[in-house]
Amino acid sequence: xxxxxxxxxxxxxxxxxxxxxxxxxxxxxxxxxxxxxxxxxxxxxxxxxxxxxxxxxxxxxxxxxxxxxxxxxxxxxxxxxxxxxxxxxxxxxxxxxxxxxxxxxxxxxxxxxxxxxxxxxxxxxxxxxxxxxxxxxxxxxxxxxxxxxxxxxxxxxxxxxxxxxxxxxxxxxxxxxxxxxxxxxxxxxxxxxxxxxxxxxxxxxxxxxxxxxxxxxxxxxxxxxxxxxxxxxx
Length: 234
Prior knowledge:
six-stranded mixed β-sheet; 36% helix
């Protein structure tokens, strides 16, 4: 479970989050959506501890996250645009993260094979395609069996096979009771994976609930059109 309560964040005169309250329950995939500058990235980074909120609190598995680096041990993060040291190989990046985390991990060889990374182990990250870097990011996100997964545009650059395998893995983690928080601009992807949705607009929560509730509220069967209705109404 991840919960945010009355979360605010100011950057000078700009108020990026305006008292955001939302829950991200275990065993569910929750999509965070909204137009550009809606506060999605600030919310995600606040949960990760990469942004210090101006007010309010983030709770991860019941523990306050502010100034509490221990909660990050329970989070697997897949950024939209993963960056790795250019002169290190895939194998070296994985080894470095293993040493940094120092935590029990899943079957590394199995994950590498699953995401098709085994042939790239000794290649420097600077020569990897965007999709292959994304596969490496996926391996690192799942590797330590985290209880919370935060996935930011995770299938960007993935080929159809890798994207399908990734979605299958996310569904499996959800079914194991993990908390999954997902952002994507591809509404069909969210419709396939998510059961819940948090819609942000100008730093405020406009809707938070199940997709079926959203469809009933807007009268639209398709998620893309339902979200468009929310934007029009707001």
